[in-house]
Automatic annotation (TrEMBL):
Organism whose genome encodes this protein: Saponaria officinalis (Common soapwort)
Region of interest called Disordered, as start-end residue ranges on this chain: 65-84
Transmembrane spans: 26-44
Domain spans labelled Glycosyl transferase family: 273-453
GO molecular function, one term: glycosyltransferase activity
Keyword tags: Glycosyltransferase, Membrane, Transferase, Transmembrane, Transmembrane helix
Protein name in UniProt: Glycosyl transferase family 1 domain-containing protein
Composition bias, Low complexity: 67-84
Length: 484
């Protein structure tokens, strides 16, 4: 991965770590920052000019049957009480199209660790490795090896033998389908009956017959939201003339480690103080943040336009509110993208440089969730497949301003845990007005945050997710056994 450069407002987070380590009561934070579910990779450079790269996971969702929501996050990681305990000693092959800091691979890694936690034998293979990502691949592979996940080459006899012996094969994302013919070749029909295909994509360019021609013949598909599942069902039938297999909708859940930080008031206060100090904002300032990789599909441009409009509304109506700031987490100036340049030029053009802060891509979202006041989920077109950052923000008792599209509508209860606005340019003014609503009504903001936290505790915890995935795995194993 290319070396990332700090935003001018952002001092090195290594300084923040030194301060945190001096707080003996906050050992919890250090543990949480090494959490399994966020798979933190500290891509630190030795030079003082570089910033730590904290990166995150994105997205996941619910399941067909509604699991008992009374289970708490403390109900456990021990194999005896885990919903996945029946996977003990099972051989599971996980096939990822790539190994990177993007949502799909990191979600599959999380599943790998959940299965290892109950004693399953887990093998990971990566079908394609993008050039220039050696540092990331090395770090993530070592993270898996440390947890007992075996890492094999995607090609060769060892991969074929493992696929044939495995009790379960999980293909991650539509692109992973290319691995079947490229590697298994004549053995594809023997493996398909025990394949679970985990799909996270909403974008049209993934609908290629070369990727998904085997989809109708696998044991099942697991998709992160009902909206995405319906989209795949219709699109495969209309565009490709193929039928989806048995499809399970699995909503994601927050890890226990993230929940521990979210529920620790001392940890949150310290993180808030240090991040705000690094950004150069005061404790009483209002921070609205969008936390996604910077791209047009995630809507950072429309968010900044809305933020600028909200400042104009407040000025015109003479509202008395604390200074407001927009935080864009997911920046990468080293990539030199035209879109990111557009964002920064807009900020300069509107003279709001002192109000907008760009933060490098990061795996670790906890510091930012502890330091902001409102999360903006502004994904465009069909929206997010799920939007895991949404449930992570709700765990930190933050209200969510989201687009009325995709999985966000299955998470955010409009007017209760947040406010929804349309996608596209039509959403710019409604989002601006929603920003003003939450900026001018402190009690409403806090109440929405509390209700969002309650919704997370009801249905978006790691245990809930494990129950939903367990249901799917049992069905797939049953089908595989019957086929044999």
């Amino acid at each position: 991965m290319a070396k990332q450069h700090s935003h001018p407002h952002t001092s090195s987070f290594s300084t923040m770590w030194i301060h945190l380590q001096k707080k003996q009561k906050l050992v919890l934070i250090l543990v949480a920052f090494l959490s399994i579910s966020t798979v933190i990779v500290l891509l630190m450079r030795a030079s003082s000019s570089s910033s730590s790269c904290f990166d995150r996971i994105v997205d996941r969702r619910d399941k067909v049957t509604r699991s008992s929501s009374s289970s708490s996050s403390s109900s456990s990681s021990s194999p005896s009480s885990s919903p996945l305990s029946f996977m003990k000693s099972k051989l599971v092959l996980l096939v990822s199209h790539e190994l990177s800091l993007s949502g799909g691979p990191l979600l599959l890694m999380e599943l790998a660790f959940l299965l290892r936690g109950v004693g399953a034998d887990v093998v990971w293979i990566t079908f394609q490795k993008p050039p220039g990502a050696e540092e990331v691949v090395y770090s993530l592979e070592n993270k898996m090896l440390d947890r007992g996940v075996q890492v094999f080459s995607a090609k060769g006899q060892k991969a074929i033998d493992t696929a044939l012996k495995a009790d379960l094969v999980v293909l991650n994302t539509a692109v992973a389908g290319k691995w079947l013919d490229a590697v298994l070749k004549d053995d594809v029909p023997r493996v398909l009956p025990k394949v679970l295909w985990w799909i996270h994509e909403m974008r049209g360019h993934y609908f290629k017959l070369d990727f998904v021609k085997h989809l109708p013949y696998v044991a099942g598909a697991m998709i992160d939201s009902h909206t995405t599942a319906e989209y795949w069902k219709n699109r495969t039938k209309e565009r490709l003339g193929i039928k989806m297999p048995d499809t399970f909708v699995v909503h994601l859940g927050n890890s226990k480690d993230l929940m521990e930080v979210a529920e620790n008031s001392v940890a949150k206060r310290v993180l808030r103080e240090h991040v705000r100090e690094a950004l150069g904002v005061r404790n009483d300032d209002l921070l609205f943040a969008i936390i996604n990789s910077v791209s047009r599909g995630k809507g950072q441009d429309l968010f900044l336009r809305s933020f600028h409009e909200s400042l104009q509304i407040i000025k015109e109506k003479k509202h008395q509110v604390p200074p407001m700031h927009a935080v864009v987490v997911g920046s990468d100036m080293s990539a030199q993208t035209k879109f990111e340049t557009e964002l920064r030029n807009f900020v300069i053009e509107k003279k709001i440089q002192d109000r907008v802060h760009f933060i490098n891509k990061t795996l670790t979202v906890a510091p930012y969730l502890a330091s902001i006041d409102v999360l903006v989920q502004n994904s465009q077109t069909r929206g997010e497949c799920f939007g895991r950052i949404t449930i992570e923000a709700m765990a930190f008792q933050l209200p969510v301003l989201g687009t009325a599209a995709g999985g966000t509508m299955e998470i955010v209860v409009n007017e209760t845990t947040g406010l929804l606005h349309p996608v596209g340019k039509d959403g710019v003014i409604p989002l601006a007005r929603n920003i003003v609503k939450l900026a001018t009504h402190v009690e409403r903001r806090l109440t929405m945050g509390k209700k969002g936290y309650g919704r997370v505790k009801e249905r978006f915890l790691e245990y809930h997710m494990a129950e939903r995935i367990a249901f799917v795995l049992k069905e797939v194993l049953k089908k595989a056994k019957n086929h044999t």
